[in-house]
Amino acid sequence: MNSTLVEVRNLKKHFPSPAGPVKAVDGVNLKIEKGTSFGLVGESGCGKSTLIRVMLKLLEPTDGKVFFRGKDITGYGFRQMRPLRKEMAMVFQDPHLALNPRMTVFDIISRPLKIHGLARGKGELMVQVVETLKAMGLQTEHMIRFPHELSGGQKQRIGVARALVVEPEIIFLDEPTSALDVSVQTKILKLLDKARRERDLTFFFISHDINLIRVVADTMGVMYLGKIVETGPKEILLEDPHHPYTRGLFAAVPEPDPDKIITEIKLTGEVPSPVNPPDGCNFNPRCPYVQSRCREIEPELKELADGRSVACHLY
Amino acid sequence: MEELLKIEQLQVAFSTEEGPVEALDGVELTILQGTFHGLIGETGCGKSVTGQAILGLLDNNALIKGGRILYRDQDLLRLSPRKIERTIRGKEIAMIFQDPGSSLNPLFTIKNQIEEAIRLHRKAPAEKREEMVLQALKQVKLPDAENLMYRYPHQLSGGMKQRVMIAMMLACNPKLLIADEPTTALDVSIQAQFIKVLKELKEKLSLTVLYITHDLAVISELCDYVSVMYAGRIAENLSMRDLFKDPRHPYTIKLVNSVLGATTTLDQLEEIPGSVPRLINPPGGCRFHPRCEEAIPVCSQEAPPLREIKANHSVACHRR
Amino acid sequence: MSEDLQKEIASLKQKKTGQMYLTWLRFKRNRLSVVGLSFVLLVIFIAIFAPLLTPYEPYDTNPFRRLESPSREHLLGTDELGRDLLTRLLYGSRIALQVGILIVLFEGFIGISFGLLAGYFGGWIDEIIMRLVDVLRSFPVIILAMAIAGIMGQGLFNVVLAIGLVGWTTYARMVRGKILSIKESDYVEAAFATGESTVSVILRYILPNVLPTAIIMVCIMMPTALIASATLSFLGVGVQPPLPCWGSIAAAGRDYITRAPWISTTAGIFIMFTVLGFNFIGDGLRDAFDPTSKRN
Question: What's this model's pTM, rounded to 2 decimal places?
Answer without folding.
Answer: 0.86
